[in-house]
């Protein structure tokens, strides 16, 4: 395993308030990582910096074998390098079928001419089915996305990101609003996706993080408070104090 992403000493201030304070962390090229932290810990700002939405005041975000610095690159350029971001709310094309949503995602990113001129090839169809299988929606391929449950829409959107074959998938609170069964399915799905790429899950829900069974980074006031297994970080006195609001 080698390092895919290295966040090196980044700081972000909003009107003099330090949302991220000299934060450093590394993400290997495969496997799951959870980032947790109380409200205002800087989780969203962290994702915004990595994806190019927010430019840090200082620090570097290094990517891939060549340690390319992503700071200053546009969001679309960073996405094309292989960084996919799943926002909290599902954004799928509700009027289109599950298959059409996956198909569009498959054709969309790298080559716009392909989207304009290409017919759907047998390979595309096979790939759509493989992704539907992976996200557990193979029996729903013909359904309109708008008819899916909240959890199914989230899986579809994850599938649309997987169609673009990202090297890193950043997922914001995937378990929010899901039933227990949907959460289990989501854990399995993310675990499978992380076998061949890095998956970083930003989450509030400790139970969900426990099921992910992965290394956890706890953020607080814009810095890393603790890192390790969930058992390790939840027995850390600083983490206990922060979570109990002491
Ligand atoms: N655009 C902004 N302008 C001013 N302050 C901001 C801005 N964005 C974030 N902040 C502040 O920076 C801090 C970190 O916010 P951030 O949204 O990154 O935390 P978070 O861990 O994602 O919190 P939550 O779990 O509530 O979403 C907070 O105190 C927040 O109020």
From TrEMBL:
UniProt xrefs under Gene3D superfamilies: P-loop containing nucleotide triphosphate hydrolases
UniProt xrefs under CDD domains: ABC_Mj1267_LivG_branched
Annotated InterPro entries: AAA+_ATPase (IPR003593), ABC_AA/LPS_Transport (IPR051120), ABC_transporter-like_ATP-bd (IPR003439), ABC_transptr_urea_ATP-bd_UrtD (IPR017781), P-loop_NTPase (IPR027417)
ABC transporter domain sequence ranges: 5-246
Keywords: ATP-binding, Nucleotide-binding, Transport
Taxonomic superkingdom: Bacteria
GO CC terms: plasma membrane
GO molecular function list: ATP binding; ATP hydrolysis activity
PANTHER family associated with the record: CONSERVED COMPONENT OF ABC TRANSPORTER FOR NATURAL AMINO ACIDS-RELATED, HIGH-AFFINITY BRANCHED-CHAIN AMINO ACID TRANSPORT ATP-BINDING PROTEIN
NCBIfam families to which the protein is assigned, alphabetical: urea_trans_UrtD
Protein name: Urea ABC transporter ATP-binding protein UrtD
Record organism: Rubellimicrobium rubrum
């Amino acid at each position: 395993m080698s390092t895919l992403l290295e966040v090196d000493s980044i700081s972000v201030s909003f009107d003099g308030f330090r949302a991220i304070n000299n934060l450093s962390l590394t993400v290997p090229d495969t496997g799951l990582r959870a980032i947790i932290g109380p409200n205002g810990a800087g989780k969203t700002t962290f994702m915004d910096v990595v994806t190019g939405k927010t430019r840090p005041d200082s620090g570097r975000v290094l990517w891939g074998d060549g340690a390319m610095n992503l700071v200053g690159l546009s969001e679309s350029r960073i996405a094309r390098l292989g960084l996919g971001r799943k926002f909290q709310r599902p954004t799928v094309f509700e009027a289109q079928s599950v298959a059409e949503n996956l198909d569009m995602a498959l054709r969309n990113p790298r080559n716009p001419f392909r989207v304009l001129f290409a017919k759907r090839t047998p390979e595309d169809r096979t790939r759509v089915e493989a992704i539907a299988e992976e996200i557990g929606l193979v029996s729903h391929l013909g359904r309109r996305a708008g008819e899916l449950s909240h959890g199914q829409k989230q899986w579809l959107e994850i599938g649309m990101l997987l169609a673009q074959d990202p090297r890193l998938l950043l997922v914001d609170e995937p378990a929010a609003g899901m039933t227990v069964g949907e959460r289990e399915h989501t854990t399995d799905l993310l675990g499978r996706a992380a076998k061949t790429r890095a998956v970083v899950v930003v989450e509030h829900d400790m139970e969900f993080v426990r099921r992910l069974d992965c290394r956890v980074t706890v953020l607080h006031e814009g810095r890393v408070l603790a890192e390790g297994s969930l058992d390790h970080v939840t027995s850390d006195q600083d983490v206990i104090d922060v979570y109990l609001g002491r």
